[in-house]
Amino acid sequence: GAGKSTLLKILNGLIQPDEGKVTIKGRVGALIELGAGFNPILTGRENIYNNGAVLGFTRAEIDAKVEEIIDFSEIREFIDMPVQNYSSGMKVRLGFAVAAQMEPDVLIIDEVLAVGDVAFRMKCYNKILELIEKTAVIFVSHSLGQVLRVCTSAMTMNYGKVVYIGQIEKAVTMYEQIYLQNKLNNISSEKKNFGSQIKKVELKNSGGEKVTDFSTGDDVYIVIQLASNDRIKESRIRICLESINLGPLGGFSSPFSEVFFDLEEGEEREVIVVVKNIPLQIGAYNVIVGWYGNKQMPVIDVKNFGVNLNIVSPEIKMLAFGTDGFFRFEHEWVKK
């Protein structure tokens, strides 16, 4: 609902802007909506020629590319079948093959690459990495892994407004911060006072400073303030680190280290747990803290309490030239 697809349609000339103007130099290829630009009663082969003509290519230029397009799409046995009989995955295969193999000056790609099998998606990403050397690629996605892998700069939008344009890592981090802050606001508004509760959670660095920004490999001190309205015996604390894309990345509970907490009625206590050498890479994460009792009192704080944890460095390099993903693994190359 931020207006991404509408903006792409304006860039592609499918929608006229209410105000302002868009100037694009060169041929524009687009993969915006599933099956957009295809005539359903024509075959896949006929649609290749139609799409090529729309992009401004001559028949001779399309003839020179048609076999490459069919090979890339991996649907040769169905290429002379009407497109209306294609599955969604087949339409994406043909649509991307036409858009990419014709090598336009500007290539616009919406989230349609979420459809189809993993092997073909990886083939598409590798093709995009080839294209960005000579083609301007505009890529829209909610998958932060895809964005970090493909893009060299990014724009983050929130409710239709641009909040940042520039460095890719910062754009991704801002997107995650906006999402997590909205989530934490919802948790806070729903939270009720059940007596004993987690009053506060803070993050500190090894110097004891209250911070939220860390680097991969730092020690992260999670400081938890407990307040008891009852006498509590052998309570447990659980920590979970969460990604907005994948959900929980991993968690641990104090009983794993044979640690339990006894509190007297009216007592407040500070609990500190140190996450050593944190392996997370650039991005915004959520630290979820839950407080649990024994079998007679299974849950003490009904709503988990969360706090933002931002990994801001070191920089993640492009796929095949550095590191990617959520975790950085300690490794060593052995040459023989």
Strand content: 25-35%
Low-pLDDT runs of 5+ residues are: 188-193
**Mean pLDDT over all positions:** 82
Count of individual helical segments: 7
How many β strands by DSSP?
A: 14
Radius of gyration: 26 Å
Largest sheet: 6 strands, mixed
Helix/strand class: alpha+beta
Order of helices and strands: HEHHHEHEHEEHEEEEEEEEE
- The percent of residues in helical segments reads 25-40%
Shape: elongated
Instruction: State the distance separating the first and last CA atoms.
Output: 54 Å
Task: Produce a short descriptive summary.
With 336 residues, this protein is α+β, with helices and mostly antiparallel strands.
Q: What features would you describe in this structure?
A:
This protein is an alpha+beta fold. The chain is 27% helix and 28% strand. The chain is built from seven helices and 14 strands. The protein has helices at 4-11, 44-54, 59-73, 88-101, 118-131, 144-150, 168-190; strands spanning 28-31, 106-109, 136-139, 153-158, 161-167, 197-204, 213-215, 220-227, 232-243, 247-253, 261-263, 268-275, 283-292, 305-313. Strands 7, 9, 10, 11, 13 and 14 form a six-stranded mixed sheet that branches. It has a three-stranded parallel sheet with strand order 1-2-3, covered by helices on one side. It has a three-stranded antiparallel sheet with strand order 6-8-12, with no helix packed on it. β4 (153-158) and β5 (161-167) form a beta hairpin. α2 packs across α3 (59-73). Mean pLDDT is 82; it is low at 188-193.
